[in-house]
């Protein structure tokens, strides 16, 4: 007969007593073995709730043992002893199967002694932090840093890019109910590792549109031509009489609609599918991973330890935005095309950076990070035993009710479990509070870099650096502060809710100040001001780039190419300014850091739309130069300081709300409660929020990219409306 496996084996000698039993009949079972000879061998000791249990087995040919309790003796088989041990574990509130599975670190049969030092909760938390860092880098950082580049590359608006961003939540929503309900009884570390591999697969899928699509081409201008540079080309009678000629460039553009349909819909679908995979992969990290930690540490230590996971996840966007800022300085096709021939710089509105490179890098790294999780055991016995001894003597409200051994075994029990949570008023109110917080975080953070880019007229790389370097660290420190205060003040659920209300009140005050730290609209003829208006004219009008001065030019709005007129008004393009000639000044150039010439500053002449400033008697020449006119705004520093404060205070509520959620349900319900909370958060916050913010931002667009009478990405925003609607939505939800 096979020998029963020793449970919670320790190195204690057989005579050591952990707790003295109370007076009366002994409640500690001493298991001794007798055989055909006197060769007795004790295998180990295990403890349950502080009591000593010794297990001794004889050589393999021994089939019987004697168990003594007080003065009574009876002969039983080793199988009987094994079943009694399992029954004692059930009475203590634990699943015996968890204790009988392999408890060593390793892969398959390869479990060397050197790996066993990793079989502890601290090592699990360490690798969880790394996984959270890089998963957060993709979903909340890098994708948001390249979202405006993706819009420009595939000619889509903020509404559609918001759908792509929300697809992460669709993926998580599909998986979270089943993963959280059934996963709590399965091998949690392996499920977390599988999640990491799915995120990696999603990251690789993000790069497919770049490799499947044709090379990116600049549309709407003639930047490689020495004869034409997006200038006004009025057809003459001679050109119209030539065979095959067309009346306007506009009609030629319409002919191109049939021949050069972009077909970007398939690439958008791939991006959505990639986001879904990333969402599915991230599900076990924050539901099962959090529960695994809470199950292996004392209750008073759980908030601060789990806070490290959430803090590193919040730190992920710093890595994502930083990498985005770096890679967007390289041209999208830099490895297959010499972009220097385009005479473009990163400051040019038509620049498209290497948005796909970060996904390739993160996908490779996540494969390596996922591997260690497959080596962790299902249960970390040393940490679990320490937790049992630590919680011994605490009240039931502090430790929690005993586990329901039947919970989470069959799919038919899911409706009963859902009803149990829906009857929990504290749980539901906490979920709705979390939804309000995360609706802000999800929608606001998705478009934060875009807001900074357009509001303060800086390039995408700089916007990503400021977002990742200022806003995200504020969120990280806020999460850590929340966990620290929960542990330091030993806050119960009521105290955690009070702390949340105080932090939210302070955040609202900071957001009100943010509304007044923005910039005025740049003066762009036909977009933010009429062509005929002077510098001091503030007449209300509807944006229209076509005027009598450029009506015959048939200008394209496929791409923006700003120029500055001699009247200090910016024009959408040389064509829209009515310029008919240009020349390049070889002494006036733009250089990179290595002193390499990237482009010449072009000067435009005979610009019919550049007229005399009506507010003065100065006659302005019809001249312009490439690039927008200077636009001064002194509120950037104040904005970043207040932004740090807003994210710090908002993130500080995350750990208190998480602890209220976990303490408002029974222990066996925690994984499923977190999973259901994720479902509610996705339905009410994560999914609608980016779409809502994206639609709101689109309402502030003044000039849309046009192709075949269809809108592409937005080229010019009313940044004053952008500010009040974007930040106002944050304030309203808060």
From TrEMBL:
GO biological process: monoatomic ion transport; sodium-independent organic anion transport
One Pfam family linked to the record: OATP
Keywords, comma-separated and alphabetical: Cell membrane, Disulfide bond, Ion transport, Membrane, Transmembrane, Transmembrane helix, Transport
An example Gene Ontology CC term for this record: basolateral plasma membrane
Topological relation to the membrane, as annotated: Multi-pass membrane protein
Superkingdom, taxonomy of origin: Eukaryota
Molecular-function GO term, any one: sodium-independent organic anion transmembrane transporter activity
Major facilitator superfamily (MFS) profile domain mapped to chain residues: 125-734
Start and end residues of each stretch annotated as Disordered: 1-26
Subcellular location: Cell membrane
Transmembrane segments: 123-143, 163-184, 191-212, 266-293, 305-332, 352-374, 425-445, 465-485, 497-516, 636-660, 672-693
Classification via InterPro entries: Kazal_dom, Kazal_dom_sf, MFS_dom, MFS_trans_sf, OATP
Keyword Disulfide bond attached: yes
Record domain Kazal-like: where: 543-608
Family of this protein: Belongs to the organo anion transporter (TC 2.A.60) family.
PANTHER family in UniProt: ORGANIC ANION TRANSPORTER (PTHR11388), SOLUTE CARRIER ORGANIC ANION TRANSPORTER FAMILY MEMBER 5A1 (PTHR11388:SF142)
Name of this chain's protein: Solute carrier organic anion transporter family member
Organism: Lingula anatina (Brachiopod)
């Amino acid at each position: 007969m096979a020998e029963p496996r020793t449970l919670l084996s320790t190195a204690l000698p057989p005579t050591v007593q952990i707790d003295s039993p109370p007076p009366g009949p002994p409640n500690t079972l001493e298991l001794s073995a007798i055989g055909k000879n006197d060769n007795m061998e004790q295998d180990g000791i295990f403890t349950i709730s502080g009591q000593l249990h010794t297990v001794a087995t004889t050589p393999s040919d021994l089939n019987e043992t004697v168990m003594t309790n007080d003065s009574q003796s009876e002969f039983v088989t080793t199988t009987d002893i094994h079943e009694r041990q399992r029954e004692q574990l059930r009475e203590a509130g634990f699943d015996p199967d968890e204790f009988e599975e392999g408890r060593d670190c390793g892969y398959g049969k390869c479990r060397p002694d050197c790996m066993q030092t990793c079989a502890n909760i601290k090592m699990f938390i360490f690798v969880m932090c790394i996984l959270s860092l890089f998963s957060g880098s993709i979903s909340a950082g890098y994708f948001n840093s390249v979202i405006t580049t993706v819009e420009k590359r595939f000619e889509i608006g903020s509404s559609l890019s918001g759908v792509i961003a929300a697809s992460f939540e669709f993926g998580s929503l599909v998986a979270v109910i089943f993963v959280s309900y059934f996963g709590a009884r399965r091998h949690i570390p392996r499920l977390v590792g599988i999640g990491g591999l799915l995120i990696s697969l999603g990251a690789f899928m993000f790069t497919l549109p770049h490799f499947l699509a044709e090379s990116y081409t600049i549309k709407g201008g003639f930047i490689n031509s020495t004869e034409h540079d997006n200038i006004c080309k009025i057809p003459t009678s001679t050109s119209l009489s030539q065979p095959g000629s067309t009346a306007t460039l506009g009609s030629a553009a319409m002919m191109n609609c049939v021949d050069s349909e972009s077909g970007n819909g398939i690439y958008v679908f791939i991006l959505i599918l990639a986001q879904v995979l990333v969402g599915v992969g991230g599900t076990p990290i924050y539901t099962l991973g959090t529960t695994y930690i809470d199950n292996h540490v004392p209750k008073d230590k759980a908030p601060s330890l789990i806070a490290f996971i959430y803090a590193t996840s919040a730190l992920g966007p710093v890595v994502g935005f930083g990498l985005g800022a770096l890679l967007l300085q390289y041209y999208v096709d830099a490895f297959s095309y010499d972009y220097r021939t385009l005479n473009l710089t990163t400051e040019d509105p038509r620049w498209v950076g290497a948005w796909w490179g970060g996904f390739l890098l993160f996908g490779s790294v996540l494969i390596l990070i996922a591997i260690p999780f497959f080596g962790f055991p299902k249960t970390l016995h040393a940490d679990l035993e320490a937790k049992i001894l630590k919680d011994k003597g605490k009240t039931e409200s502090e430790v929690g009710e005993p586990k329901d051994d039947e919970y989470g075994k069959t799919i038919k029990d899911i409706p009963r479990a859902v009803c149990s949570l829906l009857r929990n008023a504290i749980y539901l109110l906490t979920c709705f509070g979390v939804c309000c917080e995360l609706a802000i975080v999800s929608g606001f953070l998705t478009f934060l870099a875009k807001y900074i880019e357009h509001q303060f007229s800086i390039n995408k790389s700089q916007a990503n650096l400021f977002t990742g370097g200022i806003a995200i660290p504020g969120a990280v420190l806020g999460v850590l502060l929340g966990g620290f205060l929960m542990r330091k003040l030993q806050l119960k659920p009521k105290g955690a809710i009070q702390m949340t209300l105080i932090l939210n009140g302070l955040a609202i005050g900071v957001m009100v100040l943010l509304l007044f730290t923005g910039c005025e609209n740049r003066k762009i003829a036909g977009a933010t001001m009429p062509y005929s208006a002077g510098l001091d004219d503030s007449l209300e009008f509807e944006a229209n780039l076509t005027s009598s001065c450029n009506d015959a030019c048939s200008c394209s709005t496929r791409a923006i190419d700003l120029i500055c007129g001699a009247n200090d008004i910016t024009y959408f393009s040389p064509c829209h300014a009515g310029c008919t000639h240009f020349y390049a000044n070889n002494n006036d150039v733009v250089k990179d850091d290595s002193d390499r010439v990237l482009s010449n500053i072009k000067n435009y002449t005979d610009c019919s739309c550049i007229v005399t400033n009506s507010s003065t008697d100065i006659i302005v020449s019809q001249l312009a130069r490439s690039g927008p006119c200077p636009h001064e705004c002194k509120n950037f520093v104040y904005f970043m300081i207040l932004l740090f404060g807003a994210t710090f205070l908002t993130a500080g509520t995350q750990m208190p709300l998480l602890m209220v959620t976990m303490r408002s349900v029974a222990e066996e319900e925690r994984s499923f409660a977190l999973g259901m909370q994720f479902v509610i958060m996705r339905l009410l916050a994560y999914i609608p929020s980016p779409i809502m913010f994206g639609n709101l931002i689109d309402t502030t667009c003044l000039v849309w990219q046009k192709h075949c009478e269809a809108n592409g990405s937005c080229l010019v925003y009313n940044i004053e409306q952008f500010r009040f609607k974007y930040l106002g939505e944050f304030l309203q939800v808060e």
